[in-house]
Amino acid sequence: MVLCPVIGKLLHKRVVLASASPRRQEILSNAGLRFEVVPSKFKEKLDKASFATPYGYAMETAKQKALEVASRMHQKDLRTPDMVIGADTIVTVGGLILEKPVDKQDAYRMLSRLSGKEHSVFTGVAIVHCSSKDRQLHTRVSEFYEETTVKFSELSEELLWEYIHSGEPMDKAGGYGIQALGGMLVESVHGDFLNVVGFPLNHFCKQLVELYYPPRPEDLRQPVQHDSIPAVDTFEDLSDVDGGGSEPAQRETGSCDEKAEAGVAGQATAEAECHRTRATLPPFPTRLLELLDGFKLSKALLTACKLKVFDWLKDEAPQKAADIASKVDASACGMERLLDVCAAMGLLEKTEQGYSNTETANLYLASDSEYSLHGFMLQNNDIIWNLFTHLEFAIREGRNQHHRVLGKKVDDLFQDAYYRSPETQLRFMQAMHGVAKLTARQVATAFDLSRFSSACDVGGCTGALARELAREYPGLQVTVFDLPDVVELAVHFQPAGPQAAQIHFAAGDFFRDPLPSAELYVLCRILHDWSDDKVHKLLSKVAESCKPGAGLLLVETLLDEKKREAQGSLIQSLNMLVQTEGRERSRGEYQCLLELHGFHQVQVVHLEGVLDAMLATRVAP
Ligand SMILES: Cc1cn([C@@H]2O[C@H](COP(=O)(O)OP(=O)(O)OP(=O)(O)O)[C@@H](O)[C@H]2O)c(=O)[nH]c1=O
């Protein structure tokens, strides 16, 4: 792309930099941009796991920073800026995203991870174009990212600590500043240096060129060159075609527009063509295409788990694709492609020596690790994937699709589908165990439950949550109540330990049999499996078993009231349609259900990930 002078185009606009970073301010003012600084109040806490790529996360954070400032400024003084610029810089190494360290130890962890290795620095940038109509704020966003690779030397402990004690790492992604003392650590840089410092100025200017000098029709007839710059939204009000002033002079400069030579008439034609071009060139649907590829990425992850790729690579020296292929009876060419995708997804690390697990893979994907989600992955691969292939039928019929997958009627969801054989039951329990272990600690500590001396985890499966409750409250006796077949297998999941004496298993069907008595009842991801009728039935049984003052701890994924925002919960609700008789519900819906059954004083705590915990107290009928 030919770079044209674009910064001047912004001179008469109200430009705002939504960033507190002094480096970004310096880079942009050195480039001659005039702008105000309004640091964003957006909390950088997006769920990284919900992004297919690290740069997707950085771009979204940049966008949210800029949008927060745009809407705050609009609300506050109704002097809407013309443009708000947001940016977010992250460092990625071995599939991990590093942001600013929270303390010196954190800086030490980050820098030792980077020592002697190559890492990537991504800066996501969002340019938010604002306008105001009828006092309403309208925004259009162009976004892009830049990647630079940086190689660090091996760093001695002494140097690491000396650098950390200088204080420089604390406000910088990855814990270093390449522009200052941190420059000592760097062996080589590949790509835009300023991108590492915090703002990819060159790419920003190219982006502005795309906006202010849209391609002419004859340019479009040339074969399209796809480079790393995604096409962007174009805006009627951006090119200043009616603005007189500097526009013709700008167009005459450089090789941007030979048409200026054709005089005023030629200019009018060029402008008309520009308008046509803008009308025929929609923004490139990057996000849409990423969504489309989502299922392929999921299937690659599930297949790698099924083939136990992460088990073969755990605690081993790097291995070649052919070695892994021979161990799992697969083709070398197929395995290489699978491993490359896993590396691109941040699950494996690929070097000259071969492939090795990232920390994420060691922690969650190897089948024998403490927090393994391997069972959950297999459940998704072997059961849920098949159910989702019938999504169209699920939508048409409004019910789950086990009958289609199994080729027979399913009357009892658990007995006929999930527990239809010892093998499917064990896989289901392993899946639930993995998920429960991941969230049990947060659930157990969401509220102060120390006033209860006994608890009953209704449908508590392997007792993973019971164990955390027992650990957190040494005075608490916990009964796990579940179907007899489940209770029989659950013992295999219970490690020995001091909590064992606090945990008891009781067999029964919570729709038919009396519930064990307790001061606190726990329903963790149970109600979402069932229809409203069955939810009422279960809640009234729990209510009958409770004395006034007893507690009910409910853990579910809450939908936002308008069902618009919480993508993770909305997809869970679709998942419930395909798999169960139930659905996810909103906080308001649960509150109504609870109050109807005599549970009041409902408190809600949002947990990390998609879960929410609610604690309610039974009042006298
Ligand atoms: C790798 C590297 C990063 N940084 C700084 O790290 C911060 C990233 O954090 P952020 O969240 O993107 O920005 P911020 O500082 O919190 O500001 P804001 O945009 O308001 O969120 C920015 O400052 C960057 O310059 C350097 O100064 N030098 C380097 O070599």
Automatic annotation (TrEMBL):
Keywords: Hydrolase, Methyltransferase, S-adenosyl-L-methionine, Transferase. Coiled coil: none annotated. Residues 388-599 form the O-methyltransferase C-terminal domain. It holds the Pfam family Maf. Residues 235-262 are annotated as: Disordered. Its cofactor is a divalent metal cation. PROSITE patterns: SAM_OMT_II (PS51683). GO terms for biological process: methylation. Homodimer. This is Acetylserotonin O-methyltransferase like. It comes from Rhinopithecus roxellana (Golden snub-nosed monkey). The gene is ASMTL.
